[in-house]
Specification:
two-stranded antiparallel sheet, alpha+beta
Length: 56
Protein backbone atom coordinates (compact mmCIF):
# COMPACT_ATOMS: atom_id res chain seq x y z
CA UNK A 1 0.00 0.00 0.00
CA UNK A 2 1.25 3.49 -0.82
CA UNK A 3 0.27 7.03 0.19
CA UNK A 4 -1.91 7.57 -2.88
CA UNK A 5 -3.90 4.41 -2.12
CA UNK A 6 -4.44 5.52 1.48
CA UNK A 7 -5.61 8.96 0.37
CA UNK A 8 -7.94 7.40 -2.19
CA UNK A 9 -9.48 5.21 0.54
CA UNK A 10 -9.86 8.24 2.83
CA UNK A 11 -11.89 9.99 0.14
CA UNK A 12 -14.73 7.71 1.27
CA UNK A 13 -14.70 9.38 4.71
CA UNK A 14 -17.03 12.37 4.46
CA UNK A 15 -17.13 15.27 6.88
CA UNK A 16 -20.38 15.03 8.90
CA UNK A 17 -23.14 17.12 7.32
CA UNK A 18 -21.29 17.55 4.01
CA UNK A 19 -20.70 15.51 0.87
CA UNK A 20 -16.98 16.38 0.66
CA UNK A 21 -14.36 14.06 2.08
CA UNK A 22 -11.82 14.82 4.78
CA UNK A 23 -9.21 14.66 1.99
CA UNK A 24 -11.09 17.21 -0.14
CA UNK A 25 -11.37 19.56 2.85
CA UNK A 26 -7.61 19.26 3.42
CA UNK A 27 -7.92 17.75 6.91
CA UNK A 28 -5.44 14.94 6.20
CA UNK A 29 -2.06 16.44 7.07
CA UNK A 30 0.26 13.43 6.84
CA UNK A 31 0.30 9.77 5.88
CA UNK A 32 3.21 7.60 7.01
CA UNK A 33 3.52 3.96 5.99
CA UNK A 34 5.90 1.35 7.34
CA UNK A 35 6.04 -2.43 7.03
CA UNK A 36 3.17 -3.18 9.39
CA UNK A 37 1.15 0.00 9.91
CA UNK A 38 -0.22 3.20 8.47
CA UNK A 39 -0.25 6.42 10.52
CA UNK A 40 -2.57 9.22 9.48
CA UNK A 41 -2.54 12.71 10.97
CA UNK A 42 -5.88 14.47 10.62
CA UNK A 43 -6.53 18.06 11.72
CA UNK A 44 -10.26 18.56 12.18
CA UNK A 45 -11.25 22.20 12.52
CA UNK A 46 -14.54 21.63 14.34
CA UNK A 47 -14.59 22.38 18.05
CA UNK A 48 -17.46 19.91 18.52
CA UNK A 49 -16.11 16.66 19.93
CA UNK A 50 -19.11 14.74 18.56
CA UNK A 51 -18.15 15.72 15.00
CA UNK A 52 -14.60 14.50 15.57
CA UNK A 53 -15.86 11.21 17.00
CA UNK A 54 -18.10 10.62 13.97
CA UNK A 55 -15.04 10.78 11.74
CA UNK A 56 -12.88 8.57 13.92
Amino acid sequence: MNKEQVLEALKNVTYPGFTKSIVDFGFVKDVAINDKSVRIIVDITSSADEVKMQII
